[in-house]
Amino acid sequence: MRLGLGIVGAAWATVVLADAGLIRTHVLKETDTGIATGAGFVAGVLAYLIWFGGAGTAHVFTVEGRGLMSARTLTGVRTIELDALASVRRFAAMGRGGTIDELRLRDRQGLRLTIGRDTRAEDSIRRAVMRADAQPSGASVKVTRHARSRLGLDPRSSVPRFVHLFFGMWVMLAALLLPALGSYTVACFLAGTSAWVSTSHLSK
Fold this sequence. Notes:
Layout: H1 2-24, H2 34-52, E1 59-63, E2 66-73, E3 76-81, E4 85-95, E5 98-107, E6 112-115, H3 119-133, E7 142-143, H4 145-151, H5 161-191, H6 195-203
């Protein structure tokens, strides 16, 4: 995960520096900060997926009595131990063509995995949370009320579903667009151009 984030960060910085350098040397026009902006957007999307461990189909299995969940992510296969979960959060948002509804898992080693709608995976997570809840408070898993609602556990969230969807949409947009805005601002600063002037030129 850290390696993947490092590669994305290095590639983003290289594009931004190259864009600013080419503008300063007049190889590119002042309005060509869009290159850095696009790089920021792509880097934001990739970093988002890598950090949360967006996964496909999850596989649940047992090794030496330990319940494990494994899934392929953008940076390769990640495997977390269900009985070593540290937190379970739920992310819901209005998305293009439907809604997003995910469970975001983190274990005590810091590994993260995001699971979509998957009945078998949810059943395994529910059992792991129930086992943890039955242990002393120090061994419990931090599970949000929103996540408990999806897992069918109490106490559940009293916040209406549409509020979660609306709030989640803005959180996701901010996570994806802020890197692009940051890249644009940094490129303008390094290139010695005005962000306002560049925007004005682009709008003409």
